[in-house]
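Predict structure. Chain length: 135.
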Amino acid sequence: MFLNFLSTAATGGGMSGILFLVIIVVVFYFFLIRPENKRKKQLTQMRDNLTIGDEIVTIGGIMGKVVQVTEDTITFETGEDRVRLQVTKWAISTNVREEKAKAAQQAAARNAKAKKKAKTSGEENSIDEGSPKGE
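Prediction complete.
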């Protein structure tokens, strides 16, 4: 197959083949590699910004409240019986408190956008108070 590619490149048809391969690499980069690197960076940043009192979920699904943070480990309490577990930072999946704050901000932004849209479209001002519905 490689020899076939070289023979077509020698005859002049290889430029389109090389261009096709370059396009495939660029598409893979923008749709697979770049978003994955961005997600890893956000996850690392979230793990580095954990503080005492944050509610977390581990990759194993254990939920708890952070009581101690060191360079490499997190100690957290689970449930009312105050069992303490110590895990490495890479084992933390999500910060529940941070996720709730982001969801609340997104909901507030959607509500503000919906109110702005309603005001600009005139839906709130279209009620005639003086005339009955049938007239």
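Summary: The mean pLDDT is 82.
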